[in-house]
Design a protein that fits this description.
This protein has a single domain, classed as Orthogonal Bundle (Helix Hairpins). Helix 1 packs antiparallel against helix 2. It is elongated. The chain is 76% helix and 0% strand.
């Protein structure tokens, strides 16, 4: 039991490291993009920035789901990668359909992955909300200065 919990905690640390890397890449992109003026069609630019940011952050979460799926395959929890990936995705997002289950001691990994997913999506959401706030403030300031139109 302790070995399974230790394995789960190690997997959580790997995911945290990957989340930090992804978040730093996303923040660096946004810092670079935010230095540029919004241009004559600010909503288009904002949409593009948000889309790129969301894609980078979601790819980071998908890679973490795949990491857990690989872990499940390595410990023999599932016979094929597709099932492991499906279970991992359902667990990481805390949907928990219950149509695919871990058995034996490996069941202890499920709650750890669910907790990990909640934390990682929390970090993703916090970063995304921060970007929305900064972009909104920049847009309002530009409109107040009369340098941007609404389109």
């Amino acid at each position: 039991m302790i070995a399974v919990i230790a394995l789960g905690l190690l997997a959580m640390l790997v995911c945290l490291a990957f989340q930090v890397l992804t978040s730093v890449l996303a923040a660096r992109y946004f810092a670079h993009a935010s230095r540029k003026p919004l241009g004559p069609k600010p909503l288009r630019g904002i949409f593009l920035q948000f889309s790129i940011l969301m894609a980078v952050l979601m790819i980071g979460n998908i890679v973490q789901v795949a990491f857990w799926a690989v872990l499940y395959r390595l410990v023999g929890a599932f016979a094929d990668f597709e099932t492991a990936m499906y279970f991992s995705g359902v667990t990481f997002t805390s949907l928990g359909y219950g149509d695919v289950l871990l058995t034996g001691r490996m069941r202890l990994l499920g709650p750890l992955q669910a907790a990990n997913g909640l934390m990682m999506f929390g970090i993703t959401t916090a970063l995304f909300i921060s970007v929305i706030q900064q972009t909104t403030a920049k847009w309002i300031a530009a409109q107040s200065a009369g340098t941007q139109n609404v389109r």
